[in-house]
Amino acid sequence: MDIGMVPDEVDARTSNVEAANLPDFDKLKGDAIGSTLYSESALLKTLMTLSKETGDNWSEQMEEQLCSLWDMTFEEDVITLLMQHDFVHLACHVIQVTSEPRLIEILVGVLGNMTALKSARQSLSQSSTAEQLLSLLSSSDTPTLLQLVRLLNSCVWHVNRISHSSDGQDEDEHSESQSEVDVWVELLKNSAMSLNENLSFILRSSTNEELLQSTLELLNNLCCITSKNQYFSAFLSTSVMLQGLNEALHQLLNVGSSLSDTNNIVWEDKIEKAAQHWSQTLSTFTLHETGIVLLNDQRQIIMRSLCCILDPLCSQENMFPLNSVKLEVLDSLVDILECLKNKRSYCPPAILPRLLTILSLISPVKEYDGETEWRGMENEEDSKKHSEILRRLHNYCSSVLSEIETPQFLEGFGDDSFSKAKKLLSNLLKCSDSNVGRIVDIIKRHLK
Known about the structure:
By secondary structure, the chain is an all-alpha fold.
């Protein structure tokens, strides 16, 4: 029997035992934690063992007990009991005194599970506790970092959920929810310098794909925080963070120093997630002057990353089936491109052919029988987003095409540019959208 577990049925071999022999089972059921089948006395015994941890008495038996505790914390009743015994304080004390990486990993993992409960998040947001946990971001132990980033992602996700969904709450509930948001926002603002330093270092130096993905997700969630008309992404809009974002993206996409490396990328889950978090994070930079200045100062580096994402989407195999995440990625990329264009009329030649190719793929096309094939979305909300993306791509491409000279237009196609431009024009001619028709007219003038 696993430690801490109470059997939910009597073994078949004892089914004929007289009732007089069953009081121990009833006693065990009375020892269960809430509605679970976990034993409270076994859990308390584990906590007693943990409280005696001095940093040098780590053992395999203790690891097994704590791993069982870790599994148990998927149950809310278990978390509630741990909160009653001040587990957050106990765990932080042990983390402080021990140098055993596995012990720290498990304890941070348990705390991460506990963030499902509001009282646990409130306890974790206490300044001394939070500062201790945030200091672990400088750890060199990847398993610990994975659990820590998971914990922070959960807390920040709840902050965003609360701050964006106050509908239906009465005044007291709203005030209490806002208080939780304010505490976390202030805490994160005070830690912005260390967050920049540690998260950017993870992105630049880690080779663990799961850690890179989780850290990109954390940054995306952090940058979505808004409080009192202030964007938290302004505190993370630094050159060192942007460098980390780009290096992590290139590693996850497995691209080298040449853009030709992106031609054979297969769009899969890990690439979609990386593209989503990278593009949405940079999209939030466009909302304030600090980020706008940074994006423009680093525009050449950003453009290479943009091409790394756009290239695989230029193939029909990768673009379809079109889903909501791809639409979100395209929407965020247009945010970045519009920001650069509006600030300095900047649009490198390499971007336009890629956008026009994507436009030819996701626009409605004419069939031979005169009917139109709609390459849209079944979901109404996604369909609206698709239409909005088409509109934004039309506007951006039309504007750039009208402002550049023919040599600039052809430069973006590389070798054999005229033939490639003619082929793209042929694909655009198949589109039934009148807005694409206006783009076609401008391209025809460039190719005369």
